[in-house]
C-alpha cells in the first residue's frame, strides 16, 4: 500500500473547489459520466488502431444509487487505469489526461469525441462527496488499483482484486448533499446533461413486455421481463449526415428534445461545418406566439454530446434566440465550469456562420416551394424582420426571401413590389410610395379608398415594422412608406393634377374659422382640401412621421421621449363636398355646430376613435336627427 500527498501547490485545494470552482454542484455527475465516456471512447479508439488488443464489445456505463450505504456509483467498462496511471492522472490536479490523449493521437483521434478538457472534472466529485474511491482495472495486464481520498490532500492507493476491465467511482455522499441519493434527482440530472451522450448509460431497470407467442392461449397474459433502463440516445439526429435523415427524423428528434412541446416546428436547419471550427446541430423554427412570451424551450448547447447550457447568448445571433434545437461544438471557449463564454474570435465566427446558414436555408425554402414559404410567413416574420434590423449580414441576404404581403394576401419581395407599383404609385417628385395598413379592420375605410384608386396596400402588422420601414427608406433612395390613414388619398401619393376648389379663397377662410371654433384644438388640426365631391366630407388622419416616431419609441428606439407625445390628428375637410357648403351657408349657429359635431364624430368612428361619453352623446344626437 502506498500513501502520499496529492501534488498541489495550494495546501488544501478541496474547500476551494467546493466553494468557487464550480458554482453549480450538480455538474459533478456530468463530469464523472464524461470521464467514464472518455474512458470508453479511448478504448474504442485504441482497439480500432490496434494498440489495445482486447475485445471492445458493447460497453455501457452504469449509474447506481446505494441509498442505505449513502453511496453513488459510476461504473464504466472503458480502458481503466493502472496504479501508475492513477498516480499520474488523478493525483495531479489540473493535468488533463484527455488533452494528453488528444495530443498523443493527434492525427487519428481528433474525431474520437473525447470530452475532457481542463483536468479538473474529477475533483468536482468533492463538491458532493465526503470521500471518493476509485477501483480501476486497466485493459493492460496489470493488477487493479484502489484509490481513496476523504477530501484532505492525503490519499491512499493499494491493489484491488477487481478482475473485469474498467473503472468504478464510488462517492460517499456528504450530509449536505443527500439529495443526490434520490432516484428522481439523479434521473433529472442524467436527462438534463447526458441524454445524448455517445455511450449507453444504464440507470436501474425497467419492465419490458415479451412478444406474444404464436400459439398463445385465449387467456394469455402479457409477460414482462426486467431490462436495463438506458437513459440516453447515443446517436442523436444532429450527429448524423443530413443526407441520412428524412423530414420525419427531424420531427422525431424535435419531440425527443422537447417532449412537452406539441406543436410541430415549421422547418429545420441542419448545421454541419468542420472548418475553421467544428460545429454541428439542428435548429428549428417554431411557431411563435404573437406576444413572444418568455420561452422555456430554448436552444441547447452541447460539447461532444454533453449538455452544457441553454444560454446561447453570444453564440447564436440575438435574433435567432427564439429558435429551438441544439448546437454542438467542442470549439466554443467556455470557462472551467462551462458556464461562461469567453470572449474569443471563434465565437463571432460561429455566430456569423449560423446567420449565413439560416439565410441560405430561408432562400432555398423560398425557391423550392414559394407557396409553402408564404403560408409560413406570418409565423416567421418577426424573427426575420428583427434579423434585418439587428444583423447587417442577414439584411444583405434578406432581399431574396423577405416578403411584403398585401391586404389581399398577395406576397411580394421588395423588388417585385417596386416593379408592381411603380407605374401607378410614383408621385410627382419621382418617389415611389408604398401604402400600407397595420390593421385591416381598423383601417378598412382608408384601404377601400386606396384600392378604388388602383393602389396596392400592404399589410404590415408586426410590432417592429416601423423600425423596418425606417431602415428600408434610408437604404432605398426614392422609396417611401405611408400608412393609408396618414393623409387623405390625394395627398398620400401626390400626382400632378390638382383638384379645383368649389369654394373661393374667402369662403375657404370663413369655413376654416367656423370649424376651428367647434373642433377641439388640442387634438385636431383642421386642414381644408379640395377633393373629389363624392369623397368623404370629413376624414381624420394621423401624419406618418409623428405616428411612426411614436411607435418606434414605444418599441425601443426612434426619437427620445416621442412615446409620451399626445396623439395628434388632422381633420381633413373636403371643401368640394356638399356638407362643406351646407355648413358654410347655415345661418343658425346651433344647427351649424351640430352638423360639425356629427361629421367629426362620423370621421372619428371610421378611425375607431369614438368611445365612452362621446360615443353615448353621438348615439343620442343621432336618434334626435332621425326622429
Ligand atoms: P479531464 O477529463 O479534463 O482530462 P478530469 O479531472 O475529469 O480531467 O480527469 C482526469 C484524468 O483522470 C482523465 O483525463 C483520465 O485520464 C483519468 N480518469 C478519470 N476518470 C476516469 C475513468 N473513469 N476511467 C479512466 N480514466 C479516468
Ligand atoms: Mg473529465
UniProtKB/TrEMBL annotation:
This is Chaperone protein HtpG. Keywords: ATP-binding, Chaperone, Cytoplasm, Nucleotide-binding, Stress response. It comes from the Bacteria. The lineage of its organism: Bacteria, Pseudomonadati, Bacteroidota, Flavobacteriia, Flavobacteriales. PROSITE patterns: HSP90. Pfam families: HATPase_c_3, HSP90. InterPro entries: HATPase_C_sf (IPR036890), Heat_shock_protein_90_CS (IPR019805), HSP90_C (IPR037196), Hsp90_fam (IPR001404), Hsp90_N (IPR020575), Ribosomal_Su5_D2-typ_SF (IPR020568). It comes from Flavobacterium silvisoli. Belongs to the heat shock protein 90 family. ATP binds at residues 31, 35, 76, 81, 96-97, 167, 338. One of its GO terms (molecular function) is unfolded protein binding.
Amino acid at each position: 500500500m502506498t500513501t502520499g500527498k496529492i501534488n498541489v501547490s495550494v495546501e488544501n485545494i478541496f474547500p476551494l473547489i467546493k466553494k468557487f470552482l464550480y458554482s453549480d454542484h450538480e455538474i459533478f455527475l456530468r463530469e464523472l459520466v464524461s470521464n467514464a465516456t472518455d474512458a470508453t471512447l479511448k478504448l474504442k479508439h485504441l482497439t480500432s488502431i490496434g494498440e489495445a488488443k482486447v475485445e471492445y464489445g458493447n460497453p455501457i456505463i452504469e449509474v447506481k444509487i446505494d441509498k442505505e450505504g449513502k453511496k453513488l456509483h459510476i461504473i464504466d467498462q472503458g480502458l481503466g487505469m493502472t496504479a501508475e496511471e492513477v498516480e499520474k492522472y488523478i493525483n495531479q490536479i489540473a493535468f488533463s489526461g484527455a488533452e494528453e490523449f488528444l495530443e498523443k493521437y493527434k492525427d487519428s483521434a481528433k474525431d474520437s469525441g473525447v470530452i475532457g478538457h481542463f483536468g479538473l472534472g474529477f475533483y468536482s466529485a468533492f463538491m458532493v462527496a465526503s470521500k471518493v474511491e476509485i477501483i480501476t482495472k486497466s485493459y493492460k495486464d496489470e493488477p487493479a488499483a484502489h484509490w481513496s481520498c476523504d477530501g484532505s490532500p492525503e490519499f491512499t492507493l493499494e491493489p484491488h482484486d477487481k478482475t473485469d476491465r474498467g473503472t468504478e467511482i464510488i462517492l460517499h455522499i456528504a450530509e449536505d448533499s443527500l439529495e443526490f441519493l434520490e432516484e428522481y434527482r439523479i434521473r433529472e440530472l442524467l436527462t438534463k446533461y447526458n441524454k445524448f451522450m455517445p455511450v449507453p448509460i444504464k440507470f436501474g431497470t425497467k419492465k419490458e413486455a415479451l412478444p406474444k407467442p404464436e400459439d398463445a392461449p385465449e387467456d394469455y397474459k402479457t409477460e414482462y421481463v426486467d431490462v436495463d433502463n438506458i437513459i440516453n440516445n447515443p446517436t442523436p439526429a444532429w450527429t448524423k449526415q443530413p443526407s441520412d435523415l428524412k423530414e420525419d427524423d427531424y420531427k422525431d428528434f424535435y419531440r425527443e428534445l422537447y417532449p412537452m412541446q406539441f406543436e410541430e416546428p415549421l422547418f429545420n436547419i441542419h448545421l454541419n461545418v468542420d472548418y475553421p471550427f467544428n460545429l454541428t446541430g439542428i435548429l428549428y423554427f417554431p411557431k411563435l406566439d404573437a406576444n413572444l412570451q418568455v420561452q422555456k424551450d430554448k436552444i441547447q448547447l452541447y460539447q461532444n454530446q454533453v449538455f452544457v447550457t441553454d444560454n446561447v447568448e453570444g453564440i447564436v445571433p440575438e435574433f435567432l434566440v427564439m429558435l429551438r434545437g441544439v448546437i454542438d461544438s467542442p470549439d466554443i471557449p467556455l470557462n472551467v465550469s462551462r458556464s461562461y463564454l469567453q470572449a474569443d474570435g471563434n465565437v463571432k465566427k460561429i455566430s456569423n456562420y449560423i446567420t449565413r446558414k439560416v439565410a441560405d436555408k430561408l432562400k432555398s425554402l423560398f425557391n423550392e416551394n414559394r407557396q409553402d414559404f408564404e403560408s409560413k410567413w406570418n409565423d416567421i416574420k418577426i424573427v426575420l424582420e428583427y434579423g434585418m434590423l439587428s444583423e447587417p449580414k442577414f439584411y444583405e441576404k434578406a432581399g431574396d426571401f423577405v416578403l411584403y404581403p398585401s391586404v389581399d394576401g398577395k406576397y411580394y419581395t421588395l423588388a417585385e413590389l417596386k416593379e408592381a407599383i411603380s407605374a401607378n404609385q410614383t408621385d410627382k417628385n419621382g418617389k415611389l410610395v408604398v401604402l400600407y395598413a397595420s390593421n385591416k379592420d381598423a383601417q378598412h375605410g382608408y384601404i377601400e379608398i386606396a384600392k378604388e384608386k388602383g393602389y396596392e396596400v400592404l399589410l404590415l402588422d408586426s410590432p417592429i415594422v416601423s423600425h423596418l420601414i425606417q431602415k428600408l427608406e434610408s437604404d432605398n433612395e426614392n422609396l417611401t412608406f405611408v400608412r393609408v390613414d396618414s393623409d387623405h388619398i390625394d395627398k398620400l401619393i401626390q400626382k400632378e393634377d390638382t383638384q379645383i376648389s368649389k369654394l373661393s379663397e374667402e369662403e375657404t377662410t370663413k369655413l376654416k374659422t367656423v370649424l376651428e371654433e367647434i373642433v377641439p384644438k388640442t387634438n385636431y388640426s383642421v386642414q381644408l382640401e379640395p377633393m373629389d365631391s363624392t369623397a368623404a366630407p370629413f376624414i381624420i388622419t394621423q401624419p406618418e412621421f409623428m405616428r411612426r416616431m411614436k411607435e418606434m419609441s414605444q418599441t425601443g428606439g426612434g426619437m427620445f421621449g416621442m412615446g409620451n407625445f399626445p396623439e395628434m390628428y388632422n381633420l381633413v375637410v373636403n371643401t368640394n363636398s356638399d356638407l362643406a357648403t351646407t355648413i358654410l351657408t347655415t345661418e343658425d349657429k346651433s344647427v351649424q355646430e351640430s352638423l360639425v359635431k356629427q361629421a367629426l364624430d362620423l370621421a372619428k368612428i371610421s378611425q375607431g376613435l369614438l368611445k365612452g361619453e362621446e360615443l353615448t352623446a353621438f348615439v343620442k344626437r343621432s336618434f334626435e336627427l332621425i326622429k
